[in-house]
Write a structure and sequence with these properties.
Structural class: mainly alpha
Shape: rod-shaped
Order of helices and strands: HHH
Radius of gyration: 21 Å
Number of strands: 0
Largest sheet: none
Helix content: over 70%
Length: about 60
């Protein structure tokens, strides 16, 4: 059995499994994309954001 037929039989054969795979994939992609963008934003603005400088102003 080839890889293509295995994927077809386990995911694409039934519409419900295909829909759940799409929803799960979209959720995982959204979370990973959001975390990656937040990490890049924090690194670019290191030392400028409130969470980085709030210790300078706390009493």
């Amino acid at each position: 059995m080839s890889l293509g037929s295995t994927i077809y039989n386990s995911i694409f054969k039934r519409s419900s499994t295909f829909a759940l795979t799409l929803i799960g994939g979209a959720f995982i992609f959204e979370r990973s994309f959001d975390l990656t963008c937040d990490t890049i934003f924090d690194n670019v603005n290191k030392g400028k954001l409130w969470k980085h400088i709030k210790n300078n102003y706390s009493q």
